[in-house]
Amino acid sequence: LLTDSTSIRFFVRRLAHDVGVFSTKTPLGWIPAHSQCPVTALFKNYGSNTETFPVTARIVRTNLPYDTVFSRTLTISNLEPGNIVESYFGDWLVPPNPDSWFVLLRTDLENDMLLRNDTCRVITTSAPLPLGSILGSWDFPRLGDGMNLAGITYRSDSNRFYLAVCDPNRVFSFPVAPEPELIPENFEIQNFFGDDIIWGIAWDETQPGFWLTHVSAYGDGCIAARYEPDGSFAYDTWDLTTIELGTWFAGLDQGPSGTAFAVAVGGANHIYQLDFNSKEVIRHLAEPIASYRACAYLGDHNRYLFTGGWNQHAITALDIEGRTVETKPLANLADLDIYRPTNPFPDSLIWAYATTSSQKNTIHMLSLGTTWTNIGLGAKPD
To answer: Highest taxon of the source (predicted)?
Structure first.
């Protein structure tokens, strides 16, 4: 309805025979090298008659020799007017070396009256994407009214990620999968201050179990508490306020030789390397001096630790001395941890899951901008 009260009516003419590609599903965007990827797409009948027609999916390298690495034709039967159908063409084994490809889709209805929507071309790549590139995102509104996500850690013996969730305090886990599904874990979460908020969480590989940081919501307390692999309280704690007055500790991650890194918030905003067993401070990194939250240890000399936070809306890579190597924008970052497969393919991308402090309780899958080969490891560190 226009401002002068004049109405306009639109009439769309539906052709008698018209089918086309509606969208590509997979592969699309970034895909892992040396993985098995389903080839799927959506097709629509835009016409006014029920149709049966062939559809083809091809995957072609974007550079020399421009060879076709996948090709398959299917028949869609009796697709009614206006309906959309998903077609699965089979699985494609992505080559082991990073590369890029065109995904080409085509419909071949013999008497199609509109050819413009019969084809579609998208690009997919297994080459490393820049630091902070989002590979996937999932919202979890059922966790609460927002800002419920805190720390995250990877547990290699179960191939699962564990989440510290607050308001109220809970721990969830999810497997490494295309669509993360959160499962509540039965943790005996303590309430040391009477107003505890759990934040950091780290899996201890050397003495299997979890460390969680408990922060007083209205006071100055901060305690690291150990929990057994089954979530029961291990009766082992460390008062972290003795390290630096006026601070609390956010992101945690295990580092070399059973030590851990912990991000202090307040004071000098140091990132500390700690020995939870002896309750000793080993050192603090030279940088950053900003108020960060996240903590993920990789171990490469030039990409030793990843940090960042929601104040700067950024993710930052630090070298072994703690100096900033690279910073990229990343909105609402809370924490992240790295996926460490047992024997990663050397040219595969190093990536992490990241929690955000956001209304939708969003978890991202992030590129860390490099491969296992590029950091000189070829397998998981330590």
So the answer is: Bacteria
Phi, psi of 257 (to 5 degrees): 55, 35
Structure letter (DSSP) for residue 154:
E
Per-residue pLDDT of 338-363, as tens digits, reads 999 888 888 788 999 999 999 999 99
CATH number of 134-371: 2.120.10.30
Residue ranges, comma separated, of all CATH 2.60.40.10 domains in the chain are 19-125
Exposure class string for 179-210: b at 16+ Cβ within 10 A, else e: ebebeebebebbeebeebbbbbbbbbeeeebb
Looking at the DSSP bridge assignments, the partners of residue 267 are: none
- Bridge partners (DSSP) of residue 201 are 212
78-102: per-residue pLDDT in tens?
999 999 999 999 999 999 888 999 9
Alpha-carbon gap, residue 269 to 160, rounded angstroms: 30
pTM above 0.85, yes or no: no
Burial class of residue 342 (count of CB atoms within 10 Å of its CB; 0-12, 13-18, 19+): exposed
> What CA dihedral angle connects 375, 379, 380 and 382, to 10 degrees?
-90
For the domain covering 19-125, report its CATH number: 2.60.40.10
Please check whether residue 368 is in contact with residue 338, taking contact to mean a CB–CB distance below 8 angstroms. Answer: yes
